[in-house]
């Protein structure tokens, strides 16, 4: 899932927000997950915000603050 997470960050950096979201979703769905879910939700929120989808951005920002960081 780290590869998908890194791909998401790369796509975000290039401004390809739909591909970034797809990559983050793939990273989030892999089990067991070694990337903390709050970190994934935070990055997804930032990407949705950059895309202009404020409703989904707020959803992911709230989710990132509710989840404990487990390592």
Architecture blueprint of SSEs:
Layout: H1 2-14, H2 17-29, H3 37-51, H4 54-66
Helix pairs in contact: 1-2, 2-3, 3-4
How would you sum up this structure in a few lines?
The chain is mainly α and 71 residues long.
Would you kindly provide a written description of the structure presented here, covering whatever features stand out?
Helices cover 76% and strands 0% of the residues. The chain is an all-alpha fold and 71 residues long. Helix 3 (37-51) runs antiparallel to helix 4 (54-66). The longest helix has 15 residues, at 37-51. The radius of gyration is 11 Å and the shape is flat. The chain starts with a helix and ends in a 5-residue tail after the last helix.
- Name the average pLDDT: 91
- Rg from alpha-carbon coordinates: 11 Å
How many distinct helices? 4
The largest pleated sheet is described as: none
**Proportion in helices:** over 70%
Structural class given helices, strands, pairing?
A: mainly alpha
| Run of helices and strands | HHHH
**Outline:** flat
Structural features:
flat, 71 residues, 76% helix, mainly alpha, 4 helices
């Amino acid at each position: 899932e780290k590869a998908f997470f890194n791909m998401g960050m790369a796509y975000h950096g290039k401004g390809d927000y739909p591909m970034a979201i797809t990559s983050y979703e793939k990273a989030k769905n892999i089990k067991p997950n070694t990337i903390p879910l709050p970190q994934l939700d935070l990055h997804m929120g930032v990407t949705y915000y950059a895309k202009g989808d404020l409703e989904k951005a707020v959803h992911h920002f709230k989710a990132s603050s509710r989840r404990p960081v487990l390592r």
